[in-house]
Specification:
With 217 residues, the chain is an alpha/beta fold. The chain contains 5 helices and 5 strands. It has a 5-stranded parallel β-sheet, sandwiched between helices. α4 links the parallel β4 and β5.
Amino acid sequence: MPLIPEEPQIHESAQGPRATPASGRTAPTPRPVPGPRPVAPPRPGRPGPLRPAPPVQRTPHDVAVAKPAVPGPAARPAPAPAPASASAAPQIQLIPASAAGALDAAEEAVDLLLESGRAPGEVLVITTGEQHPWAAHELSFGEAAYWGQHDAGDDVFYADASAASRAASRPVVVVAVNGGSAAAVTEALPLAHSRAGALLIVCGDPQQINSVLGVGV
């Protein structure tokens, strides 16, 4: 039999690049060549790179010449505000009550005033009818002792309409319209209004109070 010469074996390492992939193998995908990177946009809140502005040529007319300041007339001082009137009208509060319940309403008003921070010496209570029990008790020791407590000014003072003209002004005056004649009420309310520095509280019939004071309370 004729001998067939053996073909020389070619090692794979000696082969050059293959144009087509061998059967059963996948050719590696070529990676894209990175080109020049674009300039990243500036982040929000951060300014981007600033380019120097081109120089601007100014003509002599564009250059402003500073003129010396001309002193103007001296400013006049503003007039001082006028002081508040010391005789400002006090605020009026009305507590509707009958003649029989006016004294109890006045007592409740005094308690609320003291609880709100008012000092006892700032309150004067005037009655148009029967005297307050405290006033009747203190007067039993004599008028000198009674008015001495008024002058001390360290406690609530109670007086009836006939004696209220002797009482000094206090920040708060409470009137209990607990009876008495119409003339007594007509005299007591304006007097109490003049004695009240900041607040006048009237316990009684609203129509009667309004007709005497002449204001809508």
